[in-house]
Amino acid sequence: MMSPKPNILIYSPDQADSYAECIRGYGFSSVKAASTVEEAEKYLPGTEVILAWKFPTQLLHKPIASSVRWFQSMGAGVDDLASDTHIPENIILTRIVDQFGGYISEYVFTYLLYLVKDVPRMSKAQLERRWDPFISETLAGKTIGIAGLGSIGAEIVRKARSFDMNVYGLSFSGKQAELVDRHFASDEWKVFVKEIDYLVLTLPLTKATHHVVNRDVLLAMKPESAIINVGRGALINEKELLAVMRSGHLQGAVLDVFETEPLPKGHPFWEMPHVYVTSHLSGPSTRDGVSRFFVDNLNRYLNKQPLQGLVDRKRGY
Amino acid sequence: MMSPKPNILIYSPDQADSYAECIRGYGFSSVKAASTVEEAEKYLPGTEVILAWKFPTQLLHKPIASSVRWFQSMGAGVDDLASDTHIPENIILTRIVDQFGGYISEYVFTYLLYLVKDVPRMSKAQLERRWDPFISETLAGKTIGIAGLGSIGAEIVRKARSFDMNVYGLSFSGKQAELVDRHFASDEWKVFVKEIDYLVLTLPLTKATHHVVNRDVLLAMKPESAIINVGRGALINEKELLAVMRSGHLQGAVLDVFETEPLPKGHPFWEMPHVYVTSHLSGPSTRDGVSRFFVDNLNRYLNKQPLQGLVDRKRGY
């Protein structure tokens, strides 16, 4: 049923036209852009391939979507899509992989250095025109613990080496265990976090990782350690993190992802000391990056080669 | 004239006792500590080795200092000592080397990432409880230009590689030219800075480097580039930097060193937009680090091996 020139539907609430233009630039002509449910309904008949962000998936089990064969998400996290019963089993589901390592690792080291060099103290001294030489700590010699050793975790490992850090890792598959100084399995969280100075979460959200960082794990961490979450909000039990930090445990929490996004205005994280809130921006899907990835996958699709970022719905990513 | 157990004088306005205790811990017993001119005068007779910070060098050409053979500075920069005519030619002068690369490079990357990821924007959004996802730029693909390729510059090169940056370098000796993608000689400043996004100064201060970053060099830089100075204040003509930045040229200046330190309360740098002032803290002489270096040199001295960090007074470092 594969056609040499498949009909492609791009869906995005605010960037559909821009993506469509970019994909056409790669030489694909049958490209439609939709930004609303109505537009999607209009273009779905005859569509074989979808590239989408926040797609109205309820449309996919209607007869108008019967020709859809492959659904490429514009994001890396597909916890919502993998468990979405609206998407028929025969539609191939793929996510973006290997695109975010560099970007997210820059975010992680921005905040690791911000914390360890005590930038707030330097900024305050400048504001007060006060000469304040002090000796900060260093990343060198400290231990980073990376939960999740996929392409993002691997890139964090690489940069951590250049800062002469000790590197621990925890992963479910154990596939990249040789990257780190010490590897821990998914039932070893409390041993894993015991000696580390920074816990970085890059795991996908699945049934097995939901609220995996709970009160017990947080209390097993050193009181002066810090946590950085660039995975998914619900990896952490946020209520328990709040309680643990209110008790004075942990030196910092850098949170780019939350159980509810956007983070509600009234949420205590916004004003909590030592909590750094950012707006799910550590690993943005840039149009050019996603388009390159999609076109590469499209060529694989046309040549009947295995697709990159294939989602195993049972596993959840 | 070398004795198996030379008399050692430690001088520091505020840390002499602490250093002396540390050196004695390495098994050297003839160690005296002085914090004032009077104490230095009292202990100088018979002293063979001096480890010092802010030493009253006028004492060194008096007869009480006639047994002094070797003067180890606690710092890396010795522009003041190298040109100090109070220090007799027969006294060996050494400085700390190879201790600051890791520390200073962490400072440099703290601010490179702070600028490129736009931490001020993220902080402001949090302060205003505002969800503000945005796509920052990345260090990856940007070009860093490092002036000075000694041990500090080399460590910055190493970390820049892990961030997938292009690395240009300028050095006077050209000895480590192979470290960088493009190397420039000391008469090529304007070509060197033309294409770079970040200029990092790690040069020693000598007659040849005084005000080497002047109006012409600054204007040859891209308007959206930034400068980081972790060398010595007078590498930059500060007045010309001020004028150039007031005209809207350069995206940022991160300054840890100044022509006058502490930076005077009334100096315009304190409140200038895009200028980040820190208090000469990027490469602190930690007691433990300096002591280790000194004891290692002391053993070389006793074994008549070449000393580390030997200062060539004509060259100026």
Jot down its keywords.
homodimer; 317 residues; alpha/beta; Rossmann fold; 2 domains; seven-stranded parallel sheet; five-stranded parallel sheet; 10 helices; 12 strands; 30% helix; glyoxylate reductase (NADPH) activity (chains A, B); NAD (chains A, B)
Structure overview:
The structure is a homodimer. Chain A has about 325 residues and is α/β, with parallel strands linked by helices. Chain A has two domains: about 10-100 and about 285-300, NAD(P)-binding Rossmann-like Domain (Rossmann fold, 3-Layer(aba) Sandwich); about 100-275, NAD(P)-binding Rossmann-like Domain (Rossmann fold, 3-Layer(aba) Sandwich), CATH 3.40.50. Chain A has ten helices and twelve strands. Chain A has helices at about 15-25, 35-45, 80, 100-115, 120-125, 150-160, 190-195, 215-220, 240-245, 285-300; strands at about 10, 30-35, 50, 70-75, 90-95, 145, 165-170, 180-185, 200, 225-230, 250-255, 275. In chain A, the strands form two sheets. The first copy, chain A, has a seven-stranded parallel beta sheet with strand order 8-7-6-9-10-11-12. The first copy, chain A, has a five-stranded parallel beta sheet with strand order 2-1-3-4-5, with helices on both faces. In chain A, helix 1 crosses helix 10 and helix 4 crosses helix 6 (about 150-160). The longest helix of chain A is centred in the middle third of the chain and has 16 residues, at about 100-115. The radius of gyration of chain A is 22 Å and the shape is elongated. Chain A starts with 7 loop residues before the first strand and ends in a 15-residue tail after the last helix. The mean pLDDT of chain A is about 95. Chains A and B meet through helix 4, helix 5 and helix 6 of A and helix 4, helix 5 and helix 6 of B. Chains A, B: One of its GO terms (molecular function) is glyoxylate reductase (NADPH) activity. Chains A, B: Keywords: NAD, Oxidoreductase. Chains A, B: It is an enzyme of class 1 (oxidoreductase). Chains A, B: It comes from Scopulibacillus daqui.
